[in-house]
Amino acid sequence: MANVGFRIVNHFERVNQEIIDGFKGIATPNIGDVMGRMFAMDYSIKTVNKPGIHVVGSAFTVRTHPSDNLMVHKAMDMAKPGDIIVIDACGDMGNAILGELMCHYAKTKGIAGYIVDGPVRDLHAIAEMEFPVFAKGGSPRGPYKEGPGEINTLISCGNVPVRPGDVIVADDDGVVVIPREDAENVLKKAKAIQEKEQEIISAIYDGRWDRKWVDETLRQKGCDGLD
Ligand SMILES: O=C([O-])CC(=O)C(=O)O
Ligand SMILES: [Mg+2]
């Protein structure tokens, strides 16, 4: 483990599959809200897929030198079915970190998707094949294959820390990261929020949505012009 910046960690704990599967169908805003609104990635990391995408998996992390994908190729060979490869490319927009070939290969391995703090390429082909990819944008510039980088160490992606084994949920709104030891608790709370929001929607259409809090809050904050 001495070669800081160029090393691979082979073993880490994944969250129980039942808990990971529990997040299927729960929208990212509901999950983000129950973590203090602190664990959602930056808006710039968004889907390059067609609308309606929703993916859940276990983080398999890569930190790569900007514009280089050597360690991402190694990660594809190592990741397990259901893993989402989360790539910290230092937020650099120089060169695409992956493209359609790497998506086809990942798909055959049962890898659930890619999240990239950087650009990708072959956008049309990726959208057509419906393999989940979230990135900062597109670029035709291809990646180098020189290294260095790290696999399965702490990374930062979209301004959120991500550790291998954290739970990732991504949809049209973006990406949330659930710290692995908190996954069960966050799942319970996110389900409760989802139910509560359904209740609110019913209340809106029944004319029962309580709006008193808006004026109360404005009054408390000293706003002029209220009745
Ligand atoms: O050349 C690369 O490594 C990335 C790429 O375009 C692909 O995977 O299709
Ligand atoms: Mg390509």
UniProtKB/TrEMBL annotation:
Its cofactor is a divalent metal cation. This is Putative 4-hydroxy-4-methyl-2-oxoglutarate aldolase. It comes from the Bacteria. Homotrimer. It catalyses: oxaloacetate + H(+) = pyruvate + CO2; 4-hydroxy-4-methyl-2-oxoglutarate = 2 pyruvate. Gene3D superfamilies: Ribonuclease E inhibitor RraA/RraA-like (3.50.30.40). PANTHER family: 4-HYDROXY-4-METHYL-2-OXOGLUTARATE ALDOLASE 3-RELATED. It comes from Ammoniphilus resinae. Its EC number is 4.1.1.112, 4.1.3.17. Belongs to the class II aldolase/RraA-like family. It is an enzyme of class 4 (lyase). Catalyzes the aldol cleavage of 4-hydroxy-4-methyl-2-oxoglutarate (HMG) into 2 molecules of pyruvate. Also contains a secondary oxaloacetate (OAA) decarboxylase activity due to the common pyruvate enolate transition state formed following C-C bond cleavage in the retro-aldol and decarboxylation reactions.
